[in-house]
C-alpha cells in the first residue's frame, strides 16, 4: 500500500510569496498554512499599547520592535514554522530578511479565550526553542492578566493580575505597568 500523499503541503517560498499578496495573514506549520482570525478592538489596543511603550524605550538603540505584520521563523521538532506574534523585538544583526525574524529577543502574544491554549502551549513551546529568545510575554484580552516566561527562570510562568503591578521585561530593561498595557480598554471591563 502506498503512503498517503499530503496534498495541502505548501513549500516555504510559495507561502512567503502568497503572504505578500494575501489580504489575510496565515501562519505556517510544517508545510500547512492556517488563516488567522481577525482581532478585536481590545486586542489591537493592547498590542499597540505594548508596541508604543517598547518603541519609545528602544528608540535609537540596536533593537527594533515590530507589530503584527512581521513573522517569526523557527524550526521545532524538524518542522519549519512561521508565526505572526502581536509584538516582537529583534536585536540580532543576523536578522536580514525583510519579511521575518529568526533571532528575536522578546515575543508578545495577546490572547483571547479562543487562542489562549495555542499561545500558552504550542506557540510557547515552539518559541522556547529559539536560541536568542529571552522572554515570552502572554497578555490576556479577556481579563487583566499578563504572564511572562523567562529563559533564565527555566521558562517558569510569572503572572501579573493587579493593575498596580508592573511587568519587568529584563531582556530589554523595561518595566511595563499593567495599567499601561490595558490603557483604553479598562473602561470596557
The percent of residues in helical segments reads: 10-25%
Mind describing the biggest β-sheet? 6 strands, mixed
Give the beta-strand count.
13
Radius of gyration: 17 Å
Oligomeric description of these chains: single chain
Instruction: Quote the beta fraction.
Output: 25-35%
How are strands sequenced across the largest beta sheet?
3-6-8-9-10-11
Shape: globular
- Mean pLDDT across all residues, rounded? 91
Compile the SSE list and pairings.
Layout: H1 12-21, E1 26-29, E2 32-35, H2 41-58, E3 64-67, E4 71-76, E5 79-83, E6 87-90, E7 100-101, E8 104-111, H3 116-127, E9 135-140, E10 146-150, E11 157-160, E12 166-169, E13 174-177, H4 178-181
Parallel strand pairs: 4-7, 8-9
Antiparallel strand pairs: 1-2, 1-5, 3-6, 4-5, 6-8, 9-10, 10-11, 12-13
Please tell me about this protein's structure.
With about 190 residues, this protein is an alpha+beta fold. It has a single domain, classed as tt1808, chain A. It has helices spanning about 10-20, 40-60, 115-125, 180; strands at about 25-30, 30-35, 65, 70-75, 80-85, 85-90, 100, 105-110, 135-140, 145-150, 155-160, 165-170, 175. It has a six-stranded mixed beta sheet with strand order 3-6-8-9-10-11, with helices on both faces. A five-stranded mixed beta sheet has the order 2-1-5-4-7, with helices on both faces. Residues about 1-5 have low confidence and may be disordered.
